[in-house]
Amino acid sequence: MTYFVGIDVSTTATKALLMGADGKLLGVAASEYSYETPKPLWTEQQPNLWWQATVASLRQLLAQTRVSPTEIKGVGLTGQMHGLVLLDAAGRVLRPAILWNDQRTGAQCDEIRERLGKAALIQITGNDALTGFTAPKILWVRQNEPDVYARTAHILLPKDYIRYQLTGDFAADKAGGSGTILFDLAARDWSPEVLEALEIPVEWLPQTFEGPEMTGALSSEAAQATGLKAGTPVFGGGGDQATAAVGTGAVVEGIVSLSLGTSGVVFASTDRAIVESEGRLHAFCHAVPGKWHLMGVMLSAGGSLRWYRDTLAPGMDFDALLTPAAEVALGADGLLFLPYLTGERTPHPDPLARGAFVGLTVRHTQPHMTRAVLEGVAFGLRDSFELMQAAGLATVRQVRITGGGARSRLWRQILADVLNAELVTVNTGEGAAYGAALLAATGAGIFPSVASACAAAIRITGSTTPSPASEIYQQVYPLYSDLYPALRGAFQAIAQHS
Q: What CA–CA distance (Å, rounded) separates 111 from 136?
């Protein structure tokens, strides 16, 4: 028998997954860890936690499945993007990793725009300078921890630190590399122009590989630690969103992945490097060779519904909360909800944006408010679709939905109607780790391409199509779109007094 492992190094746990050559999921193991917030807006993590969790998860997976390590023919890697891991010349960690959600680098983002020009930065990298990305973190260390910067010899992303522990090689995948904003998006490699402007030595950066490419082989030390076999190939993999898209089959243009969890992520594969001119969408390399993707991120999607339930209907079961909302007229009888409870990223990169119910009257009941929340999140996700199509994305043929919100039949129907597109669910629930295993299987020659791997392993389990009522939402959406511009000034004033 032939098996493949996918490893997902997330912010809160490392997951190891075992998949058969036929795409069948055989086992999953995970080990959790914590992160640190040493100062307000800072988020850091000790890289050794990832390695300890990787070892524990692999050991647990092998014990659980009783598969012989000799039958495992490849390992694929995925995990949190944008984090900064600094190593010295001997490969020792110099400081805790600065994570994707760390917000300390506002001044460095301004400096990057000044050095390159915002328009040129977006054109080269596909993205504006945002605090979550890797490049501003590097500048922050240079300016605030010069002793650490002086000893730096290698820059890695979190999952690529695990790659280094597994193989002893400094390597990265192109999807993850493009998330640093040090990449030339079209060329799919480090940008000499950006590196020169930011004065970052190219020799500090690892060689980059496509998702199914082999980057190294398991060392004897790593084999002894993990229980895997020395010499097992390790493949490129990709950032968590790119491999999650592989895990749901969103690998060809026209099929869009929609993750409806605490946040909402709209992910669209593209056949060329498409850039949204204002940087309101992220544009990265896909984990699929020769493919790119556009991505919109909504900060409070399922999080809006949870906040609403916990605040206004504490202790109420979600099904009991949503069932009466199905009886409310589309558009919630003129009640609109703006879901910016934690600021927003797409389409308004505004940390000061706020949530709001607009249009409340005495005739509105709790079911009206519930439906308005569901519709407001759907409208917010549609913003990403609108930006993608305006940037040049081909027509959306199908939306593959995952996440906790996908379990609600009512919410799926609202989304299908608001987006005016078919929504489907698929048989794969492990997302990123599963996608990493599919990339490894493709690299090992089990499948001729990533698309064929997805076609063989992923099945559609349900479909929700737009109803005739979709036309009503096409009339309500412009009203929703007018809310943020109308309220932006108020949001800024409120922030100054809170």
A: 9
C-alpha 323 chain-centroid distance? 30
Distance (Å, rounded) from C-alpha 345 to C-alpha 82? 16
Name the strand (E) or helix (H) holding 19: strand 13-20
482 is catalytic: no
262 pLDDT band (50/70/90 cuts)?
confident
Question: What pLDDT, in 10s, does the model give residues 51-101?
Answer: 999 999 999 999 999 999 999 999 999 999 999 999 999 999 999 999 998
For the stretch 387-420, pLDDT in tens is 999 999 978 889 999 888 888 999 999 999 999 9
The reply to whether the predicted model has a pTM over 0.85 is yes
Under 8 Å between Cβ of 231 and 216:
no
Beta bridge partners of residue 189, listed in sequence order: 184
Handedness of CA 440, 256, 430, 135 (dihedral sign): positive
For residues 248 and 260, the answer to whether their CB atoms sit within 8 Å is no
Model pLDDT for residues 207-219, shown as the tens digit of each residue: 999 999 999 999 9
Instruction: Tell me how far CA of residue 380 lies from CA of 83, 266, 367, in angstroms.
Output: 27, 11, 20
With CA atoms as reference, report the closest residue to 31 among 5, 3, 4, 10.
Answer: 10
Strand partners, 282: 295
Confidence of residue 359 (pLDDT cuts 50, 70, 90): very high
Per the CB < 8 A criterion, the answer to whether 233 and 75 are in contact is yes
Query: Is residue 268 a contact partner of residue 283, using CB atoms and an 8 Å limit?
Result: no
From the candidates 173, 184, 240, 383, give the one annotated as an active-site residue. Answer: 240
Residue partners of 394: CB distance under 8 A and separation at least 6 = 253, 254
For residue 426, the tally of other CB atoms under 10 A from its CB is: 21
The band of 471, judged by pLDDT with boundaries at 50, 70 and 90, is very high
Indicate whether 430 pLDDT > 90: no
Q: Are the beta carbons of 94 and 87 closer than 8 angstroms? A: yes
Positions of E strands within 191-335:
207-209, 214-217, 233-239, 255-260, 264-270, 282-285, 292-298
Task: Determine the residue type at 68.
Answer: S
CA angle 114, 175, 132 (to 5 degrees): 45
